[in-house]
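Each letter names a residue; the fold follows as tokens. Both lines appear below:
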Amino acid sequence: MKELIIKKTPNTPSVNFNPDTGVMKLEGRSIPENPGDFYDPIIEWLEEYFKKPVETTNFEMSLEYVNSGSSKYLLGIFRILKKSMMKANYVILTGIMRRMMRPSSVWASITGIR
């Protein structure tokens, strides 16, 4: 499996997912005009990765702004992470979301990830 690297733009975050180390970084703003075009390949990559993940996956997210279109896809990412954790895979999720359409407490209650 190859790394997933997407360069940051004014409207989309940088993506650096390394399947060999299990380190995955998502950083920047998330306000794409068509969030599916941006996030669908990321979700597909994660689904493939979690079929045979490394021992510890470290998902690091630092988003300065998230619009409502992006929040749907981020929720999908969180659900993939939670599903993997429920299969006894070790996943560390660290993140900062400065300004977003939903408060972090809502994300926690929806996903069950705290």
About this structure: The chain is about 35% helix and 30% strand. Confidence is low (pLDDT under 50) at residues 101-107. The first strand starts at residue 4 and ends at 6.
